[in-house]
Design brief:
This protein is α+β, with helices and mostly antiparallel strands. The protein is 16% helix and 20% strand. It has two helices and three strands; from the N terminus they run E-E-E-H-H. The chain has a three-stranded mixed sheet, with no helix packed on it. Strand 1 and strand 2 form a beta hairpin. It is elongated.
């Protein structure tokens, strides 16, 4: 049988003192200029790609054909009439 957790009241502390890192406000800045407000143990930092400029999320993703592999795959598995 599994253990049950005791419900914590308002007067009880949830986290132990002195073992958790500081969790402070942070600003994440992307190379495209977008900024996001969040919380982090690292503080402020910069990223190269975010959801505002990533090709997958913006719909500008392109299929790169290396040495005709995509075309060979399509020809090989295409339904023949």
């Amino acid at each position: 049988m599994g253990r049950r957790c005791k419900r914590l009241g308002d007067s009880e502390k949830i986290m132990k003192e002195g073992i958790h890192p500081d969790y402070k406000d942070a600003t994440i800045t992307c190379a495209c200029g977008a900024t996001y407000e969040t919380h982090s143990t690292r503080g402020d930092f910069q990223v190269e790609v975010c959801a505002a400029c990533h090709p997958f999320y913006t719909g500008t993703q392109k299929l790169i054909d290396t040495q005709g592999r995509v075309e060979r795959f399509r020809n090989k598995y295409a339904k023949k009439a």
